[in-house]
Amino acid sequence: MDSSVALGRLELARPLMTRGSCLTLPEGAQSAHLNGCVPLSHQVAGHKYGVDKVGILQHPDGTVLKQLQPPPRGPREMQFYSMVYADDHCDPCLVELQGHLPKYYGTWSSPDAPTDLYLKLEDVTSRFQKPCIMDVKIGQRSYDPFASQEKREQQIRKYPLMEDIGFLVLGMRVYKVASDSFDAYDQHYGRGLVKDTIKEGLSKFFYNGDILRKDAITASILKVQKILQWFEGQSRFHFYASSLLFVYEGVCAPSLGSQTLRESQITPEACEQNNNIDQSLSTMYSLHKKGCLRSHYQAKQDNGVWSSSQQPNGNGSPARLEEDRKEAKSDAVQETVSDVEVKMIDFAHVFPSDVPDQGYIYGLKNLLKVLHQILEE
Questions:
Q1: What pLDDT sits at residue 40?
Q2: Which of 115, 162, 108 minimizes the C-alpha distance to 138?
Q3: What pLDDT was estimated at residue 233?
Q4: Contact at 8 Å (CB) between 173 and 183?
């Protein structure tokens, strides 16, 4: 998959230690690479630096560097980010979309290899102490309309149930409170999930060995619902082989950590909290769907590459980074540990369209259905 961002996909300096059917991530420092950049330590899926032809690094300033893929995929993704984050547009559809993507700081290259370009992106896990991370590919097809017959058959063989289920767990890591360690699950785990086991398989992401983190499930549902509303209101883009990146804080609030799944005590406070959750969900689902207005700024495509304004230079944006860092720190103080991040990532296969993206919408709705089932049970 064309993986991406800041985000969390597991790049390790040492081999993983196995435990049962999952993997335990060892701690350890990683050697420096280009100009102080190191492999992303919390990558859970996608191309790995030093293993694949392209990979993901972490810059000393905290941003994530995603190496540009070969044409047309790399230029297409770069120009998609540039279009969405262009300074000279006021397109409400794209402005709303920015809220569902990692922040984009342009391109970066090392002085030693100026022709090797990287996308410079926000690390959405940075504010979490023990980030639990999951990468979920969304849609009924993981190949784009221009894929060869061989590529199509290859993608279908990887996960024949993609069209039916509408999403695929590519990887995840989950913090276990008792052992103060992470369990990791790779793409093979996700491909082994079928219709009868998808709910149980997905629920592992929210189970910390002691309790099921229903607060994180609830917050995830609300975030995914907002993304669904955006998709139902737009008819400009189709997304293929694109993912949602889920992140939540593994360190429980005291009120959550005091009760386990094995305990049957239900306090008045817990009942009130559950009622508040139900009310929040009801409010969210009753919101009128907001449509995206078509703007005069039309994206065009030339040989699979978006036309866009000039690329911002990610090598020299310290002022903006510092501003965003202060803003994020301020927001983090106000937010509870039950808050999550759900961001859209991987845009090497995004194409113009004039109809809604029904494949992505189908995947989001099915994912929401499974998350509701986990929450209710």
A1: 83
A2: 162
A3: 97
A4: yes
pTM: 0.76
Bridge pairing between strands 301-302 and 56-58: unpaired
Question: How many CA atoms does the CB half-sphere of 350 hold within 13 Å?
Answer: 25
Residues 215-233: tens digit of each pLDDT: 999 999 999 999 999 999 9
Q: Two tokens at 54?
A: 């392209």
Cβ pair 315, 118 in contact under 8 A: no
Q: List helix spans (H) across the chain.
A: 73-84, 92-98, 149-158, 162-165, 187-191, 198-203, 214-232, 254-257, 268-286, 318-334, 358-376
Residue 30's φ and ψ, nearest 5 degrees, are -115, 145
Helix axes 358-376, 214-232, angle to 10 degrees: 160
Q: Which distant-in-sequence residues (6+ apart) come within 8 Å of 344 by Cβ?
A: 100, 101, 227, 239, 242, 243, 244, 245
End-to-end CA distance of the chain: 32
Largest CA distance in the chain: 62
